[in-house]
Amino acid sequence: MQTMIRRRREATPERWQKALERAFANGCQIFQDQTTGMWIVTSASKPGACYATDGEECSCEAWLAGDPVCQHRALYRWRHGRLEGPRPQATATAHVNASDLTKQLTSAIALLREVRSVASLDAVEYDQLSAAIRRIAKVADALSATATGQAA
Question: Quick one: pLDDT at residue 8?
Fold first, then answer.
C-alpha cells in the first residue's frame, strides 16, 4: 500500500501576491458591513457566496482546510495596506442585496455546523470553527435586520 504524503502549504510572499492577483482577476469585491464592522469578500468560484475575514482568518474552504493563504485574506490585507499589489484596472461597485446575502450566509452557517458535527477536529480547530460560525451568524443577523429595515 502506498502512502501519500501531503505537503503543507506555506504562506510565502509569492503565494500572497499570486492570491491577490487571482482576487483581482476573478473580480472579487471587498466591503465592510456598516452595522457590524466585519469585512466581507465575494467568492471567486461560487456566484453569490461571500466570506467573512479579518485578514488572519476566513470563512472560506481554503482557510477551513488549513491553507495559510486565500484570495479573500489577500484582498483584505491589500485593502488595509498590509500587502503590496497592483491596483485593479477597473473596480465595479458591488451592489449587494442584503436579503440574498443573508440567505447565502445562513446556508454557509448550516454547512459549517454540519462539518463541525461530523469532522474529527481537535479542541483548537473546533473552537476556531465555532468562532467563525459565530462571526458569520453575527453578520447574517445584522444583514437580516438591514434588509427588514430594523436597527441592529
Answer: 73
Taking a C-beta distance cutoff of 8 angstroms, is the pair 116, 137 a contact?
no
74 in any annotated domain: yes
Distance CA 43, CA 30 (A): 10
Beta-bridged to residue 51, according to DSSP, are 41
Domain that includes residue 63, residue range: 13-147
Q: In this structure, is residue 152 part of a structural domain?
A: no
* pLDDT score at 92: 45
The count of residues in the chain is 152
- How many independent structural domains does the chain possess? 1
Closest CA relative to residue 135, chosen from 102, 103, 109? 109
Instruction: Count CB neighbours of 132 within 10 A.
Output: 23
Residue 18 within any structural domain of the chain: yes
Tens of pLDDT along 81-94?
Answer: 998 876 654 444 44
Specify if 5 maps to a domain. no
Burial 52-74 (b: 16+ CB within 10 A, else e): bbebebbbbebbbeebebbbbbb
